[in-house]
Structure formats: structure tokens, C-alpha cells
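Work package 3, deliverable 3.1, input record:
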Amino acid sequence: MSLIVQKYGGSSVANAESIKRVAKRIVEARKAGNEVVVAVSAMGDTTDELLDLAHEVAPIPSPRELDMLLTAGERISMALLAMAIENLGHEARSFTGSQAGMITDAHHGQARIVDVTPRRVQEAIAEGAIAIVAGFQGFNRLTGDITTLGRGGSDTTAVALAAALEADVCEIYTDVDGIFTADPRVVPRARKIDRITSEEMLELAASGAKVLHIRAVEYARRHEVTLHVRSSFSNNEGTIVYNPRDGRDENGDPVEEPIIAGVATDLSEAKITVVGVPDVPGKAAQIFTLVAKSGANIDMIVQNVSAATGLTDISFTLPKSDAQAALTALTVEKEAVGFATLQHDDQIGKLSLVGAGMRTNAGVSARLFTALYESGINIEMISTSEIRISVVTRADTVQDAVRAVHAAFGLDGEAEAVVYAGTGR
Amino acid sequence: MSLIVQKYGGSSVANAESIKRVAKRIVEARKAGNEVVVAVSAMGDTTDELLDLAHEVAPIPSPRELDMLLTAGERISMALLAMAIENLGHEARSFTGSQAGMITDAHHGQARIVDVTPRRVQEAIAEGAIAIVAGFQGFNRLTGDITTLGRGGSDTTAVALAAALEADVCEIYTDVDGIFTADPRVVPRARKIDRITSEEMLELAASGAKVLHIRAVEYARRHEVTLHVRSSFSNNEGTIVYNPRDGRDENGDPVEEPIIAGVATDLSEAKITVVGVPDVPGKAAQIFTLVAKSGANIDMIVQNVSAATGLTDISFTLPKSDAQAALTALTVEKEAVGFATLQHDDQIGKLSLVGAGMRTNAGVSARLFTALYESGINIEMISTSEIRISVVTRADTVQDAVRAVHAAFGLDGEAEAVVYAGTGR
């Protein structure tokens, strides 16, 4: 008997009909002889509706109360899902984050899991019941308060449960068939990836692939949880995200490392250029300390070669939503840093090529740059890791760029991919 | 410094605007130097909407999951209320039933409070915060499961908190100005009652007055909590429901016992007559055992004088919703009981006159029957307690009856009462 953890996002449980459909799917897994634990998100737009209400009563709602409010969403979906399963003649028991032992720190709105003690979940499955756990939520033992895990929280709940319960697999149900070599809405010939290492998945998620949240992948990697990302609208096999050990996969087979696993794009970043920075030691440190204190997450950094003037320019990218805070923080300290002006550019796009085989294959960047050059696309910034190359271009050229690169690396499939609408949390 | 527990029903927190209005009201009480604890119901129709969803996924939802689902309602309203208060510059902390220590038995959907351990509420008010507690909900220690208190649950939460915290007063905010001598929608000259004993209030609630739920009044009486029933739409003083001790009220003043405190009506009952019952010992016991086993709550019982035939008729009243079950239970055992036929009548109305002064005043029933006779209203059944007389009449005569009786006992006020729309939970 296998123990399966399944996660269903908001779009999979958007209304009574979808909830009944998901209930059937869960019951099928149970009937196939598995023990089943389910993590579920709030229904469809519930979270957004609750957020709207919060902003109607208070412009800046208290984080503790916001968590109390938002966790009502999963409470509703999990109770309904449990009812729907019981209506099919199988025992089900729903548990809040706190009942399921999802212990977090006290960082409201973005809490991190510090321990998972799923005693009640274990009792439920030992008694033959299907356990339904509220995604996205936990509680802090010290304060006794309810917390939420932030974006991608329900994925993280599922992975953390799978790790604590030593599940055989953690199935992440979503509205696409799995992880694709590129976004199928942009690259029609993108192929579904059958297997990918968690390291590659981490780079793809960090580079803008939205199917899995980076925190969930990190957790799965650290705790060696195998993920199966698949569609709740079909019975197709999805993408297995696995953790190689000593060069072998979860079945003991040697790991195949594709040169390129996939191409991700990201249009959510902006670029700030600090113009005319005195080219003396410590200036970069000064600038990025200011930016970090503003709460901004810096991604790529490029420092231009110093001109004869003794001045240099420093460019960096960061989430668009962090740009204003960073600009303000730098402007306030303009005198102290001694730069000339700030330039803000929110029309950039990032393209990233990810693949573990890159480590041992020369010429990947050359092939990338050639493909972009031949498509007439200008590269503005470059950054690399061991298994990733990212380039920044104009935002309006990114779609052409990803199609060109996808073809140049032989990733195009034979048929067009099927695309579903909507996204889950 | 006084400790005040306030309760706001669903109609008082129906939308963001009402929540902000209630928040202001709570802050005023805090600013006046009081410690404030608030019990709040779910917003407007939330509970009904959740119930509809439940019935969409499962015709007979499991009681445990239904409680899990419905408790999301107060979670939403309490968090929003806490945010709205914090937005006015006062500290607020919301607590679920379980966080507030509302310990109940495991009877899902209709749990009874077995203990209240409001440690976190006490800490919050000791630190100067306003505590907001979810009405209607509790938890069972043995199972660790969430429970709900059933109808009138939020009133009961408020009263139980007031008792456990030894509050000076428990203010029940509603959409009417207090308890009236009769329903002002039926009797325009009904007067607001300034003070009423909990014993009288209990009889009024049991006789159909809907402003306070009978369980909450019972709890207040047993734990000697003083209630103040008032409108959340005005600043008028409402009705004080107090517990006399040794003939003195909560201020040590002698209790004034009005002959008649108020007149209540109830159109929610039906009458069943068991015709042709053998007039031998044990038949009534047999009949009412069957009815009780069907789950019906019997109210009034009348047994006709036995005729020369050796047969008698037994009539009783019960909630309309219980009638079908009782009829079925009796029909199944028709042979065993030996009755001839069953008559079912759902066109009855009940009028009750309540007043502690009745105990020491003769002639109350005579005056009641005279008033009804002079209005041409026929009495079908009569039942009395020490401080109440109830009569059953035709449903369509009840409104005339209550106006006639209200006038006959000198209860009519000088002006017409102001009537608001809507009711809270």
C-alpha cells in the first residue's frame, strides 16, 4: 500500500461541481489501494474576495488578522471536499493547519514551516479515512496564532506533509499537464517534460516558470520528496520532479541529464541603473545595502567597465513591485553615495535556459547568443549559474526570443501542446 | 473600570460599512474606560450561503464537516472587525471559539458548553486590547474537533464569556431597541420593557419572543449574568434582563414585579389530535413515548374528558417541523395504541401572557379570557405555569388577540414603536 499526498489548487475546486469531480478523483486513488492525504487551496477567487473585504475595512490590515481572515478560505474548501468524499461512501476528515501540526514561525503572511507533527492525520489514515488538510496555513506554537505560508503556500503544505509522512509521492494537481519545456501559450510546440531533477526545477521556478512555487521545490529537494505535477482535468501522466542521489534517480537508474531541460521567461522584473557612481571600493556594497534595507529582492547585477572619468554605472534587476522602494532608498542617500542619476526601466524581459547537462557541455551560451542574434534580439544583461543562463532583453522581444531559443536547442515537439485556462494558487 | 461583553449579530456586521460602524461603537465603549470583549456572528447571509454550498456537494453533509464549514463564517467577520478596530487606532485581537476556550461536548451542530477557559481573552484585555471572539463555535477537548452551538449560538457565546470573565454586563446588540411588551410589528403601541427578570424573559423566549434565544437566557439565569438587549442602530437604552436575589435586583433595590411583563405569540406550532384513544391507564404514556422517540418536542397537552364510550381524545402541540415525524411514529403503532384516527392542524396560533406578578395576583386568567371573548376569539387549548398563561387559537385570529390582550392589561404605550427591518442570528 502506497501513501500518496495530493494537492489541489484553487482552480481545481472553484465550485461545487469541481469539488465533486476532485472528490471522485481522490476516491479513485483510495480505491486503488492507496492511503491518501490531500492538501487543498481556497476555492477559486475566495482569497482575492477576502482580501478586497479586508481593504474595505482597513487600508493596511494587521497581518495577524489578515491571516485569520484568509485561512477561512481553505476551511471552506476542505470541509466541502470532505463532505463530497463522504457522499461517495468513503470516510474523510478535514484538518486545519494547526490540527494537522503545521508548525511555523510567527512571520504572518509569509511564515516558514519549522516542524510538522501530523499525528491526527496519521490517526485518520490509520483508521482508513482520507485526510483533507488546509493548504497555505499553519500556526505558531509560541503565540498560539494562525499563520499563512505566503505565495505557493498550498504546494508547500503538500510537500511538507509528504516529507513528514514519508509519502511515496506528492502529486501536485494543477490546470496544465505538467512542466513544459517552455510556456505552451507562447511556444505552441513546447513539450511536456517527463522527468526533471529538483535542481533544474528550482532554477526554472526561480526563472519565471509558474506551475510550481520555488519554496515548495526547495522543500521537496531538501527533504527528498518526489513530486508528480499533473493535471486535475485529465488522467495523463505529468512531470516527475525527482532528487538524484549519487548520480541515480529514485528508482536507482542512472540520471540522464539533458543539456537543456526548459526555457523560462519572466516579465515581472524592472531594471534600475545607478549612473555615475565614483569607481572607488565599497560603492557597490553601499548601494546594495541601501537596496536590501528597502526590502527589495535583487536578481541580476551588472557593473559597467569603468570609464576614464573615474565614474561607472551599476545596473540591477528586481521585482517591479520592489522598484519604487529601492528608488526612494537610493534617492534619499544620493549625496552620501555620490552617484549622478537613477534610471528606471520596467520594459525588460528575462529569458532563462535551464539544464543540468550544461555543466558538462561547452558551447551552450554560444548557441544561445547565436540564436538571439539571428533573430535580431539585443542582449542587455547576462547572468549564469552552473545549470542556468539568463539574458535580459526588451520585454516586447521576449516571446520571439523564447521561440527562437526553443527551436535552436531542438526542444520543439511534433504537435502543438494543449493549453488550459486559469491558474491555481 | 468595567468589563463589558458585547454581542453583535449577523445583521449588524452584514457588510464592510456595518463592520466599520460596529467598530466605532466598540471603540467608544473602550474610550469610555471599559475593558471590552466582543462576540460576533457571521456576516449577514454567510451561514445560509455556506449551507447551500454544503447541500450542493452532499445531500446530507457530515455534521463534523458542516461545523468545520460554518465556523469559517465567524472567522471572517471577527478578523474584519478586528482590522476595522485597529484601523481606528485601538489594539484588537480576534480569537476562534477554540482559542477563546469555549469547550463543548461533541454534539456537532448543537453542542453544549461544558467549560469556558478564556485565558487568551483575559491576557488580551489585560494588555489593553479589545478581544473579538467568534460567536456560535467551540471545540471538543476529547476529539479536538470544532463544534457549533446551534441556533442562538452567538448569544450563548456572549453570555458564557460574560459569566467566565465575571463581566459587569453583557450587551446583546440587535436590530430592535430591546424587548417589547408585544411584537411592535403586530401591536403598534407595544412599549419597550426597561427591566425584566430572567425568569420572565425565559418564559417570553419560550413563548415565541425571538429577540433573545432561550438557551442564552437560561445560561444568563444560571450564571447570574445581567443582560442589556439594545439596538446597534441607535444609542437608546435597551432592556435590562436581570436576576433577582432574595427579592432584590442587581443594585440591591426591591424587585418590582409587574403583573404582566409582555405578550408573546407563536405561529410555528401545529396541533395533533389522537382521536378515540381507549380511556385506560398508560395510554398517554404510550403515545408520548412514541412521539418523544420520533424526536419531536411536545409543548402543550390537553386530554378531553372521557365520554361514555370509554374513549377519549388527546391533543398536543409541537413545532410544525416535527409534526410529520410524530404522525409517522403514531401511525406505525396505531394497532398497539388502539386509537381511531389522527388529526393534524397546522393553522393554530399561541398567545402567551408572561409576568412574575401573576403569582400573587388573582384574576389574570379571567381578564385574559374576557378580553378574548369580547373580541370574538375562540380558545382551543390552555396551559399555564406559575408566571405564564398560554392559549391556543386559530392562527388568523392571533394578531387581533394580541392587540386586544395588550390593551386589556393596560400595556399600550402612548406612541407607536419604531420598527427596524431584519433579524440577527
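The CA atoms of residues 39 and 115 of chain B lie 17 Å apart.
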